[in-house]
Amino acid sequence: MGMEKVDVYDAIQKWRTDGIFDHFNAYTSGGLWTTTGSGGTAAVGDGDGGILTLTTGAVLNQEAGVKTTNKVATFVANKSMFYQCGLKYTEAATNAAGIVLGMASSWTNILADTTFALPSTLSGALVYKKPNDTLWSAFGSVGTTQSSQQSIA
Known about the structure:
The chain has one helix at residues 10-14, and strands at residues 33-36, 41-45, 51-55, 65-68, 99-104, 124-129, 137-142, 145-150. The protein is mainly beta. A four-stranded antiparallel β-sheet has the order 5-6-7-8, with no helix packed on it. Strands 1-4 form a two-stranded antiparallel ribbon. It is globular and about 65 Å long. The chain starts with 9 loop residues before the first helix and ends with a strand. 8% of the residues are buried.
């Protein structure tokens, strides 16, 4: 009988790949993730596969979010990245929520309070929905070179 070999993931063999994977079975702000926003909260919800519940007080311009506590990647031109997220949300009023998910160099005022504009200088890839909108948009940017595309209804 031959020797049994342990499977080695392709990412480990090639060692060019890094990744973060979290089912949010537990959450403590300041660990891997840090709670962000103004007046919002983040807590583990009850559900199969792990759920992170972000809650605001349903007050205009209030934010709830999480970001990695430490920088884990740099978004640069001509380098591929992969991002996946399961999202489920409930709006307090019809089409009133502004929602952003993805990877960004900064999350400070990611959607401006009154104009809902994205920052003019940002490196990242985002999927977002502006308040009073029913369509989602995709956004890619390296510094000031930006591209945005709204989904088709």
